[in-house]
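Per reviewer request, we include the raw input and output of the structure prediction for the construct analysed in the revised manuscript.
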Amino acid sequence: MYAVRVRYPSPKNRNVVVTGCSSGIGAATARLLSEQGWQVIATARRPDDLERLRIQGLTAVPLDLAVPQSVENAAAEILHLCGGRIGALVNNAGFGQPGAIEDLERAEMRRQFDVNVIGLQDFTNRFIPAFRLQGAGRIVNVSSVVGRIALPFLGIYSASKFALEAISDVLRVELRGSGISVSIIEPGPIATRFGENATRAARILLEKKSSPFAEAYRRYVENSIERPSWMERFRLPPESVARAVLHALESRRPRRRYPVTFPAVVGGILQRFAPYALIDHLLWKRLCTRVPRRSSPPQEI
């Protein structure tokens, strides 16, 4: 059997929405797209970030994906600004909740999915009718390598990205023939505030003295301050992700997935071809570097 190569019409409308533009990938993507002639509508949550985006010459709209009313208001404002015509949507906004699964409370897990999955898709759904009416549009969802390989201490974040990958795959099929493409960007280690935010969250987790992973959280915080992770050697600037987004928006044949960084490529290969036992073993070894070994890993049943 042969895969069908679908050609999507390039968006004639150069209006693009980029969410989560306060820093990192979102900020780099907004800058690059603006330089390439796209009319960028950038979103952020905080007023100071919105003002900074406006100073840079971008149209800025407040958006908090965890708040349904904010999602509704932002989408309505953007469609009004664009006269109901939009060329592309880049879903970058999101956050990562670190911590062992057993240490996370219901509210923390709910917020992770409210932002990274439910709020994101609610926002996206509000633009699909405009894309359908035009017969063209690009949707780019920024996922992560942990959307292919779930990592210890990033379990609930990984779960949200697994969900985003599934939604993107299904949406791509459901929209086939409409002229709307759906692409997934899968960054590995990128030089953003993600590590800084994870360290801050780990300090909060340290307050859970009864956690069996308290020592691991302490080590994580200390190591983040004292020495860089071995992953630093593979870390790329956010502009690397922005270039992948640009290809997904402008190529006549946008890819389904764009792994960015060497670990992201390797993660995709492992997920497709490696036995689960091997993946479990590798992740167990990684976990043992953080947690004092008290016992042997559980045996396969």
